[in-house]
Write a structure and sequence with these properties.
3-stranded parallel β-sheet; Rossmann fold; 6-stranded parallel β-sheet
């Protein structure tokens, strides 16, 4: 069993990005600029945005966080989105999800300029990704593909089972791994909360992407020997430690790891790859490499 070390892989990619940024600056161009809009006081969102700030600093990016109170109106948020769309100094920006319940997330996402949509959530970017055209790919699926590629995992002709059908992870990673590419060329099955007898699918899988958000859902008796497992889930589980909780993924690691050829840890697997993929998208935006 080999751990798919997202932390080490992300660090290597981040070093490459930092070197590229310094070359840009040396040639007289400005540093890539990433902005995040954070609405409210959600603890997980605040931690995630703070990690993005650290990553930006390490890669030599300019970064900014626009903090807005939880009672911010949808119209006020849309005004901020419009301001960032029009700011020539901002190469890319994200609106951190989830948003407070009174704000329509779809309306906000659709208001973002697709050329600055480094989260890859705008319908234009999603559509281009599905068609195999140049686009910003949402950061978690992008990170998963990069991790598989870094470890040289063969995907051609393999059966990949994706647990989860969210627009952020499940659907895009299923699409990416079915495309004619490396990593790619998989036969992909998507399972979800209405799938009957999920274990009958996972036992036949060569690769499993677990993104259900259900702690330790995937058990040892649900996988075959030699399976490649990518655990996207991360949930805080209360305990008696000083922190008061520990983190677990969607995979029962102690049961599944002994049967796996490769498996991601939680934490330290997909999470760091998500953040570094956001940097890659921002660098792409700053380099004006997209054809639209």
């Amino acid at each position: 069993m080999i751990l798919l070390d997202g932390k080490a892989t992300a660090a290597a990619i981040k070093a490459q990005i930092a070197a590229e940024v310094e070359q840009m600056v040396a040639s007289g161009r400005k540093r890539p600029h990433l902005t995040a809009i954070l609405v409210g006081e959600d603890g997980a969102s605040k931690t995630y945005v703070a990690n993005k700030e650290k990553a930006c600093a390490a890669a030599g990016f300019t970064s900014e966080v626009v903090r807005m109170p939880a009672d911010t109106t949808e119209e006020r948020l849309l005004q901020e989105v419009a301001r960032l769309n029009a700011d020539p100094d901002v190469d890319g920006f994200i609106v951190q999800l989830p948003l407070p319940g009174h704000i329509n997330e779809s309306r906000v996402i659709e208001a973002i300029d697709p050329r600055k949509d480094v989260d890859g959530f705008h319908p234009e970017n999603v559509g281009r990704m599905v068609l195999g055209l140049d686009s910003f790919v949402s950061a978690t699926p992008y990170g998963i593909v990069a991790l598989l590629d870094h470890y040289g995992i063969e995907t051609k002709g393999k059966h990949c089972v994706v647990l989860g059908r969210s627009n952020i992870v499940g659907r895009p990673i299923a699409n990416l791994l079915s495309q004619k590419a490396q990593p790619g060329d998989c036969t992909v099955t998507i399972c979800h909360s209405r799938t009957k007898d999920i274990a009958s699918y996972t036992r036949e899988a060569d690769i499993i992407i677990a993104a259900l958000g259900v702690p330790e859902f995937l058990k040892g008796d649900m996988v075959k020997d030699g399976v490649v497992v990518v655990d996207v889930g991360i949930t805080r589980v209360a305990d008696s430690s000083e922190k008061g909780y520990h983190l677990v993924g969607d995979v029962a690691f102690d049961e599944v790891a002994p049967k796996s050829s490769y498996i991601t840890p939680v934490p330290g697997g997909v999470g760091p790859m998500t953040i570094v993929s956001l940097l890659k998208n921002t660098l792409k935006a700053a380099s004006k490499l997209l054809s639209y």
